[in-house]
Amino acid sequence: MANPSILILAGDGIGPEVMAEVKKIITWYGDKRDLAFDVSEDLVGGAAYDVHGVPLADETMAKAQEVDAVLLGAVGGPKYDVLDFSVKPERGLLRLRKEMDLFANLRPAQCFDALADFSSLKKDVVAGLDIMIVRELTSGVYFGQPRGITTLEDGSRVGINTQHYTTEEIRRVARSAFELAKRRGNKVCSMEKANVMESGILWREEVQWVHDNEYPEVELSHMFADNGAMQLVRWPKQFDVILTDNLFGDILSDCAAMLTGSLGMLPSASLGAPMENGRPKAMYEPVHGSAPDIAGQGKANPIACILSFAMALRFSFDQGEEATRLEKAIEKVLADGVRTADLMGPEGGTPVSTAQMGDKIIEALEASL
Ligand code: NAD
Ligand code: IPM
Ligand code: MN
């Protein structure tokens, strides 16, 4: 049987730096665990614009549709700020999500014991934290019509984006959240602004419908998203699975990142409906961006990107035990005090570069054999 296929789209800024560490880990799995992948690489974001004049070439889009999993680094950067909106690096990422129909973005926020002291919140607020944000990824205000900037008769301008959700778009992502909850703490908290937005009212009603008709055994609660942001910082351990829309999910997940210590720690899986082989179409991407302020300096934390590959092992390649091995290796390295700059607090530790962090994780993988 052919090896499972992976398309790597490292992108811009720290994307290629953190992805280099994932590549080492993929090679390790081939050499040491007899888990070989057919890996190909291509361009996305500014890197694609520089070569093709677009942030995602049609051929790259076609390849992404073919492979078992896409691994994405990050896109964007100040160099591309001047570009027309239609060819900005971020459009390449949004096209991948939309055309692959990756509607459920799983963003787990777990606080590793070794980092509980490091969070900007008190230790007992974050220690042992394990929550899962399920962000709708292919609709909402990111894609709704009408949109654009128009000039009115009096010469003033209007910027328009439209929050837009259909019954089915809400129901399918709600099912993803309930399914996950059943395998975790059996609780879903859905967040919207039903107090001010009609789309929020529909969201709440449809999530409740999926619950009542298909998952009555899962505990469901609803919260306004602004209160949700506050509760995430006040007492995040009250949550198990948080279900929310595209824009609120973007913001709430960056917020949740800081519960884990750093944005450089948060992985994600963007999943579509199951394909013929029973696996979902999938792209794995760290939650962070291209971090222009530290790009090219060997400072980036590769753990978010490596943990995203662990999610690929679990969700696309049916290798749950190997995913756990990788997560445990990361836990061990952190427990040993190994720290990239973003994780370095007053209590100190062994400072390492991006590449050294990757090497330490490989050492821990070796030790696990
Ligand atoms: P960012 O996530 O790139 O950076 C925010 C802050 O977090 C910066 O201080 C950065 O140094 C730090 N940081 C992020 N990842 C880190 C890591 N792995 N290790 C250590 N520190 C890390 O967000 P931004 O600065 O708002 O955006 C920069 C560019 O990235 C923009 O063009 C934006 O559109 C793009 N972006 C892309 C993605 C993506 O590709 N998925 C996500 C978010 C932002
Ligand atoms: C993310 C990013 C993206 C988003 C951008 C870069 C398109 O912030 O993945 O969190 O807004 O979804
Ligand atoms: Mn974001």
Automatic annotation (TrEMBL):
The protein's location, in the record's own words, is:
Cytoplasm
Q: Which amino acid positions bind substrate, per UniProt?
A: R97, R107, R135, D226
Q: What is its EC number?
A: 1.1.1.85
Q: Which UniProt keywords apply?
A: Amino-acid biosynthesis, Branched-chain amino acid biosynthesis, Cytoplasm, Leucine biosynthesis, Magnesium, Manganese, Metal-binding, NAD, Oxidoreductase
* Pathway recorded for this protein: Amino-acid biosynthesis; L-leucine biosynthesis; L-leucine from 3-methyl-2-oxobutanoate: step 3/4
> Which cellular component terms (GO) are annotated to the entry?
cytosol
Please list every transmembrane segment annotated in the UniProt record, as residue ranges. Answer: none
Q: Where is this site: Important for catalysis?
A: Y142, K193
What is the predominant subcellular site recorded for this chain?
A: cytoplasm
Q: Which residues bind Mg(2+)?
A: D226, D250, D254
Q: Name one GO biological process term.
A: L-leucine biosynthetic process
Amino-acid positions noted as binding NAD(+) in the UniProt annotation, renumbered to this chain: 77-90, 289-301
Q: Which residues form a coiled coil?
A: none
- Please describe what this protein does: Catalyzes the oxidation of 3-carboxy-2-hydroxy-4-methylpentanoate (3-isopropylmalate) to 3-carboxy-4-methyl-2-oxopentanoate. The product decarboxylates to 4-methyl-2 oxopentanoate.
According to the record's subunit comment, the protein's assembly and interactions are:
Homodimer.
Similarity-based family: Belongs to the isocitrate and isopropylmalate dehydrogenases family. LeuB type 1 subfamily.
NCBIfam families linked to this entry = leuB
What's the protein called, per UniProt?
3-isopropylmalate dehydrogenase
Taxonomy, top ranks, is: Bacteria, Pseudomonadati, Pseudomonadota, Alphaproteobacteria, Rhodobacterales
Gene symbol here is: leuB
